[in-house]
């Protein structure tokens, strides 16, 4: 029997998810899901395509239909906090954010990394929150999202940008000393975009969750949690993660 290539396996898995979701969600209830969908950079669209595949599977199993709304991360957080029937596609779960959302299930685990210019404008050899705090006057830029949350929690002064390639360009040009973003986003950037920077190291490993407004309808929340449990137990979720080349996150 001829083995499946990674690309062919992923295509088959995604096709199965789409067919399952289409049949399961016919005539189902709609849930607004806010996130950075529809970005025109490959890194954003590829990462969000994977996330949508995961959400489509779970929502389809729950007979709910996600209505994807493209909103920058910071605005998405603000809108979900005031819109009772809405959910946030993915957000970092921390002690500081614990009470801000209703946490449904983990969607991915990733590293928050720090990048610097290559060749360096500064003699950096190690990375830590203390290093960033000590050198914050030289400039730090973070991609909107998980890295930004880490810096805010540590009370480290920084700017933020909605696009990963902008963060990379600012670091490469020496406009800031450090860039902070998710490894999964950085890895998906074009090689040409990354050639002028290097990864200094990991700042933190985080689990990213699908979360909703704290007043999200309890029956829908229960259906989504139960659906996530079913597709996890029967292997469909694991197959999807394997097709994406990702490790399945644990709560």
From TrEMBL:
Gene3D superfamilies: Periplasmic binding protein-like II. It comes from Novispirillum itersonii. Keywords: Signal. It comes from the Bacteria. This is Solute-binding protein family 3/N-terminal domain-containing protein. Residues 1-26 form the signal peptide.
